[in-house]
Amino acid sequence: MNYKKVLTIQDISCVGQCSLTVALPIISACGIETCVLPSAVLSTHTAGFTGFTFRDLTEDMPGIKDHWVKEGIAFDAIYTGYLGSTKQIEYIEDFFKTVAAPGCVKIVDPAMADNGKLYPGFDDAFVDAMKGLCAKADFIVPNITEACFLTDSDYREEYDTAYIDTLLSKLTALGCKSVILTGVSYKPERTGVLVLQDGQKAYYEHDKLPNSCHGTGDIYSSAFTGALVRGKTAYDAAKIAADYTVECIKATAGDASHWYGAKFEPVLMKLIQALEG
Ligand code: PXL
Fold first, then answer.
1. Pocket-testing residue among 19, 43, 52, 146, ligand 1, by greatest number of atoms within 8 A of Cβ
2. Residue nearest to atom 7 of ligand 1 (CA)
3. What's the rounded mean pLDDT across residues 216-245?
4. pLDDT above 80 (res 96)
5. How far is the CA of 1 from the centre of ligand 1 (A)?
6. For ligand 1, atom 10: residue with the closest CA
7. How far does residue 203's CA lie from ligand 1's centre (Å)?
8. Within 10 Å of residue 171's Cβ, how many Cβ atoms?
9. Kind of pairing, strands 190-197 and 200-207?
10. What three-state secondary structure class fits 274?
11. Is the Cβ–Cβ distance between 23 and 220 less than 8 Å?
12. Stretch 242-248: mean pLDDT, rounded?
């Protein structure tokens, strides 16, 4: 049976429309069986809420893996997002070896930073460990801030193609095979994604909306993973994910009370339709 199974490893932010509460519905909507391994449970995400709870699930990971190995469970793709500790990165490197089906695609979203800054709770040791995980992935999906941390580069708000090319070369030097760099904007009202695969670069540009939403990085990586596992090329998956993310931001515009996330649910049908094309 060619029924694909994805494992996604990231936190559950109970409220906040990010990480697993986004990845599970989006990848499932892509028609892919989606298995989850929560890296941590938080009452909310950490970007804008204060006083959130945080239960680290690092210690549960080896036992979960051992059980899966015993059951002969293996995944066609493993997609990681926000992780709860540096130790988890070590465990995930082991998951890559022990619960990967032949040809398993490893997708790492180094979800740790945005707008020039690390998210609360992350430090240099985590960044260093993430560099190693990215080198073992088939695809990484960083934003520009994350690419800067991974390559020890200066973060810039404004840049040219030479700056982006240097970031990509440094990511390649780190051992990253293919890179989907998000939020690459050369013009005020346009943004896009830069896809680097087998040394070839392709840029998909689209409208930049005036509003931005938290959690769109997770929406993007989840839609990219779903489309890729559905059999789309990396470029087509990157494009489908970008178009879907734009629809999610549009669906959220004008609702200030929804500052914490993007309304991805009402536009899921557009993602499903794009996958049929
Ligand atoms: O969207 C990335 C993300 C995921 N999970 C948690 C977060 C964030 C970003 O801030 O705080 C808990």
1. 19
2. 45
3. 98
4. yes
5. 35
6. 47
7. 26
8. 24
9. antiparallel
10. helix
11. no
12. 97
Residue whose CA is at the smallest distance from ligand 1 atom 1: 215
CB under 8 A, 24+ apart: contacts of 182-185: 182/141, 182/142, 182/143, 182/144, 182/217, 182/220, 182/242, 183/143, 183/144, 184/144
| Ligand 1 pocket test, candidate residues 14, 18, 259, most atoms within 8 A of CB | 18
Q: How many other CB atoms are there within 10 angstroms of residue 15's CB atom? A: 14
The residues pairing with 192 across neighbouring beta strands, listed in sequence order, are 205
| pLDDT score for 22 | 98
**From the CA of 47, how far away is ligand 1's center (Å)?**
7
Q: Please say whether the beta carbons of 122 and 112 come within 8 A.
A: yes
Cα 50 to ligand 1 centroid, rounded to whole Å: 13
Long-range contacts: 162-170, Cβ < 8 Å, 24+?
164/194, 165/201, 168/194, 168/196, 168/201
Rounded (10°) CA dihedral 51, 216, 148, 203: 180
| Residue 141 · residue 107 · CB < 8 Å | yes
Q: What are residue 36's phi and psi, to 5 degrees?
A: -125, 150
Q: Residue 246 has which token pair? A: 């734009």
Residue 143 structure tokens? 């934003």
- Chain-centroid distance of CA 42 in Å reads 18
Which protein residues touch ligand 1 with a CB less than 6 Å away? 11, 13, 18-19, 42, 45-47, 82, 111, 119, 215, 217-218
Distance, CA of 103 to CA of 80 (rounded, Å): 17
Q: pTM for the whole thing?
A: 0.98
**Ligand 1 centre and the CA of 258: distance in Å?**
16
Classify the C-alpha dihedral 72-73-75-76 as positive or negative: positive
